[in-house]
Amino acid sequence: MFKDFKLIAGRPVYIQVKDYMKHLIIKGALQGDQKLPSTREMGVLLQVSRNSVIAAYEGLEDDGFVYVVKGRGNYVAPSAPGTVKGSPRIMDWKAHLNGHAMLAEELDIMKYGIRAEKGTISFTSIAPDEGLFDLDNVKRAFMDRMAVEGNVLLNYGYAKGYKPLIDYLHQYMEHKGVDMKGKDILITNGFTEGFNIVLSALNRKSGHVLTENPTHHTAIKNLKLHGFGIKGIPMERDGIHLGELEKALDEGEYDCAYFVPSYHNPTGIVMSPEKRQSLMKLMAGYDIPLIEDGFNEELRYSGSHVSPLIATAGAGNSVIYLGSFSKVLFPGLRVGWVLADQELIYYLESIKRAQTIHTSTLDQSILYQYLYNGNLEKYLKKARAEYKRKYELTLECCKQHVHYQALTGDGGLHLFVAFAEGFNTRELLEACRAQGVIFTAGEMFYTDGGGQHTMRLGFSRVADEDIRKGIEVIGKTAHKLMG
Amino acid sequence: MFKDFKLIAGRPVYIQVKDYMKHLIIKGALQGDQKLPSTREMGVLLQVSRNSVIAAYEGLEDDGFVYVVKGRGNYVAPSAPGTVKGSPRIMDWKAHLNGHAMLAEELDIMKYGIRAEKGTISFTSIAPDEGLFDLDNVKRAFMDRMAVEGNVLLNYGYAKGYKPLIDYLHQYMEHKGVDMKGKDILITNGFTEGFNIVLSALNRKSGHVLTENPTHHTAIKNLKLHGFGIKGIPMERDGIHLGELEKALDEGEYDCAYFVPSYHNPTGIVMSPEKRQSLMKLMAGYDIPLIEDGFNEELRYSGSHVSPLIATAGAGNSVIYLGSFSKVLFPGLRVGWVLADQELIYYLESIKRAQTIHTSTLDQSILYQYLYNGNLEKYLKKARAEYKRKYELTLECCKQHVHYQALTGDGGLHLFVAFAEGFNTRELLEACRAQGVIFTAGEMFYTDGGGQHTMRLGFSRVADEDIRKGIEVIGKTAHKLMG
Questions:
Q1: Cβ(B254)–Cβ(B209) under 8 Å?
Q2: Needs which cofactor (chains A, B) (predicted)?
Q3: Is B80 in Cβ contact with A374 (below 8 Å)?
Q4: What's the structural domain count of chain B?
């Protein structure tokens, strides 16, 4: 007994002794009413100071594991936690789950997605390259903010968000050309929470939503989870097909539209400024809320300036802009924002409060201080240069090795490849995986069951050498499959 | 022009110049195709270095605000963001919102709750006293963790949660006596998200839920938002009335039960160990999932050890335990957890991923490191002593000044007072507010429209002197109103 106790670094010794004793009591190695060794003996047995044992025994008494008999010593409590037989009820949980839970699991690509074994070259991720993170600036932002108002940051915040961050984003969006009059901002746990809060607030008449086709698979998932039917509009080289959109608008009824104008996921297309104008002119004729996914628009590293749709809408109030620095900065900080008409935000704030009370104040305040300190500009310069380099390398490799029919992607963190109709990228994926290379088959981005001949290549987290090797494998394998 | 430029500290000068120029262009003070002063002139005008102006002008060009004519200088872009007239669509947002959004707003007590003016003595909060926060240990936890794996923490994490924290909580709950076999943990953005995720997964047959009456108003709100009817069971001095519960179980059908066994909100009652055993024995006879709110059980500073219901359930799998350190440690860190049967957690994980992807890794890792470093134990010792002192003071003041009919609260951060039936605490609140003292009228905690004669007194954030003054005002005013 007491031979398997091992100290680890950085955790107080008395707590380790206490944890160890609890473990022995719970697993039954020490039994009810059994006398424990004296604190002096125990110190010798475990090779720790007697004071640590004294503190551990006190903690054990506080927590109900031990009782003291004055003048005689410490005894294991017969009713110690984990030692009393309870009243078990064994439930069949599946019988208690609803269709929503089943659908969430079914649409959860993380549960059914392809797994990369160690050493696999993976083009599946479009998360940022963590090697680019400027950790020292994040640390400084944390320490700066803690020094200013640490106590406040750790207590409850406001559902609407951390005021300095809201004010910062207000100016930030104004400088993107947004007419902020009558608009307001709600901070959320990233894009995803913002999207869900908006969907849970919108009136449902037709039960149908307009999107680009293909489109962001998380959006497809959440639209389905909210019970919406999806009408996807095909893409052209410079963005959504306006003629098809107009036709759909004339023929059907929609509760809202969801568009990704910049670095559209998965095609990587940036909608042209002219098309943005035409799109908003067209949409102005319909009473349909437009959800704009501001995804990665900060990453633009080539071409002329483009304004978000909410800026193109001028003084209008029909656009709900969902912003996030996640893909550009740090996905680990779960901070996004909804920018929209202030009346809408007023209601969304109540839903946000009901769902998660508020977004981590620490995340918000670190992000705010990081932005205030001027780090975003510096970081973007570095990140854009690096991603541009990788983009051009990937593009070059694709041109060299892949017999594609169409390739899109105006920068960002990924490219989108379409082979000839009839080609199946799931088969290609299986064949490539066997050779240690994976990517995302395009099917999951399609709203109409199409896209079997497409694939998305995320290059942000792939090393140059692996980009070269991986694309060559994909190209050669595709060529072989084409026969 | 350029006279109202003012430098602020800590933000790079060139960004401030850039922001300032953007502002001038957007508000129309600088017009399309207007030539900007040379970088040298501008440096003099704004009293900043020429290099800062050069960097600012470059940024303005990148962002589409300025164009350069070689050899001639910088000009305002005629299509600069914010200067182009868009295609506005003005929408009546109320017509696009559904009943859920309306109900969320209607039940949002922050929107309709009483506001405290500066100087008001407020007994409304049951948040922790931020003066107790050990900021240095939080900073150390942050720096420790960043040093170990900063890059990883800032990139995407897992929906299920941060592995080291999950492992820690696994042992933590085991040491509370929970049989962890077949159980698993999901990290959430505090209690509230956990509660909502569970409710959104549960099968609905009867559409009714069992709770204590009164109970936590956030739970009432979210149960209503999920469309559940609530059957409240009255409280006794040592917890829920088992006879009434049994009657309800016999007479009705329920999709789940929600109980708060420790420091029950609002009554402050800690359910006795014996009652916990009897409750679980009773519940074991029914196929009803039991949601246990682990609220504040860490705060216990008197009386014998009590086990959570999920421990009392032994090897059973019917209890869903919702844990959080928010009220005990730092509410600003939005971290809670769901401990339940692993099959249930498997589905809840997919819902969590769909709703918010994952909880802030930074929050989780700071909390983990803070716990690992052994700070919780130290902090609890300090916090318990302080809250105990305040509890006893508040209790003493109530006994001295308030003619109550019943007073409950076994510690924690609040007391609950019931006057004679017929007395109205909303009227009392109005009269006290006029004298600069507020509290929470009890009505909102009742599931059946009752409780008009009750009030909750949160003392955690009230100074000793204010406790004395405030309770005296409440007592005298109540006495006067009783006539």
A1: yes
A2: pyridoxal 5'-phosphate
A3: no
A4: 3
Residues A284 and A353 in one domain: yes
Task: Look at residue B23 and tell me if it is in a domain.
Answer: yes
Task: Nearest by CB to B10, from A156, A332, A373: name it.
Answer: A373
CATH number at B409 reads 3.90.1150.10
Contact by Cβ (8 Å): A412, A296 = yes
Strand, coil or helix: what is B202? strand
User: Are residues B122 and B168 located together in one domain of the fold?
Assistant: no
A contact test, residue of B23, B274, B356 with most A CBs within 10 A: B356
**A87 domain residue, yes or no:** no
| Together in a domain, A113 and A145 | no
Query: In what helix (H) or strand (E) does residue A136 lie, and over which residues does it extend?
Result: helix A135-154
Domain residues for B405? 109-128+384-482
Kindly state whether A38 is in contact with chain B, defined as any CB-CB distance less than 8 angstroms. no
Q: Do B299 and B257 share a structural domain? A: yes
Q: Find the DSSP H helices in B63-134.
A: 99-106, 109-112
Which chain B residues are Cβ-neighbours of A355 within 8 angstroms?
192-193, 196, 355
Distance CA B87, CA A277 (A): 8
- Please give the full DSSP string across A23-66, using - where no structure is assigned: HHHHTTSS-TTPBPPPHHHHHHHHTS-HHHHHHHHHHHHHTTSE
Question: What is the distance in angstroms between the Cα of A468 and the nearest Cα belonging to chain B?
Answer: 25
In this structure, are A64 and A140 located in the same domain?
no
Residues A388 and A413 in one domain: yes
Residue A6 counted as domain residue: no
Which residue among B94, B202, B312 places its CB closest to the CB of A98? B202
* Interface probe with A: pick from B30, B76, B355, most Cβ of A within 10 Å: B355
Q: What is the pLDDT along chain A (483 residues), one digit of tens a residue?
A: 899 999 999 999 999 999 999 999 999 999 999 999 999 999 999 999 999 999 999 999 988 999 999 999 999 999 899 887 778 999 999 999 999 999 999 999 888 877 778 899 999 999 999 999 999 999 999 999 999 999 888 988 999 999 999 999 999 999 999 999 999 999 999 999 999 999 999 999 999 999 999 999 999 999 999 999 999 999 999 999 999 999 999 999 999 999 999 999 999 999 999 999 999 999 999 999 999 999 877 877 655 678 999 999 999 999 999 999 877 888 888 999 999 999 999 999 999 999 999 999 999 999 999 999 999 999 998 999 999 999 999 999 999 999 999 999 988 899 999 999 999 999 999 999 999 999 999 999 999 999 999 999 999 999 999 999 999 999 999 999 998
Please check whether residues A140 and A285 belong to one and the same domain.
yes
Q: How far is A419 from chain B (nearest CA, A)?
A: 31
Residue ending a domain, choose from B348, B373, B398: B373
